[in-house]
Design goal:
The protein has 7 helices and 11 strands. It has about 290 residues and is α+β, with helices and mostly antiparallel strands. A hairpin with a 5-residue loop joins strand 1 and strand 2. Helix content is about 30%, strand content about 20%. The protein has a 5-stranded antiparallel beta sheet with strand order 5-6-7-4-10.
Length: about 290
Amino acid sequence: NKVDSQTNVRLIDSSGTPIDNNLPSTPLIIGADGVRSVFRAMVRKSATKLTQPIQDAGEDVKYGGRINIKAVVNKSLNGEYKSGHTYASFAPDGSVAVFAGPAGDDMTYWAISVADSLNTEDNDATSTTTFIDDLPIGDDGRATKESIKDKLLTKLNTLDSDAYVASVIDLIESTPVDDVYYQKSEEAKELGTHPLHSKDGHVVLAGDAAHAFSASYGQAANFALEDAATLAACIRDGDNLQNALEEYSKKRLDRCIEMQARSAERAAKAMKGEQVEDVSKWIFQWEIA
């Protein structure tokens, strides 16, 4: 793609030659391409072409030291747990966090966060090992889901588990391997160092591309929806597109910076069972300003 500051976004191939494919041009690209966003790198560098790979996409991302594994399964959580509530359990040392809750009629989601292991070498040097290190690699270059599921069940069965964790183990055992999803915990190193739109007003960021933060509150999808609603309202009410994008950045950045701080606090404390301030009202009582 190429952003033309005089007209609209135009499609080009990797050599820069315009592509005439009868697709309508557009004045705006919404960059919602995830944590390691190419469009965020474009915004930072004020780049207007993707004729060459942007090598530093993701350079402003940091690893959170945990592997998150999750799925939705066609099975209800044990009947003693209230409908509409999310439950959590934490290993005393913070090495494992276990979450589960409703995901629709007779559907339940489960999510397990496993911390990296700290290893001490013979020379007293230390190194870390992630949960997925040394697992078999599939054709896609990633650890196989079969091995992830097996290792996860082994890990959970070694814990001093209660009835809740036993119920989650049952959910995991009932989950088809292909439905298991895992990812490294990654987040932006810092928010607010640049606006959420390009200087020329042709690229705007949304979702994790705009504000990747720790998954400790599970708010990535919710905040992406907030982005979409806010952007739509700003474009609707703005005098022009540039002013609308500036207003969008202002409205979203403060809230996202706050969410990043809250998420980091919870990741550091709650994963070890420590109490943190309940910010659920602040999260869910949001309205488009």
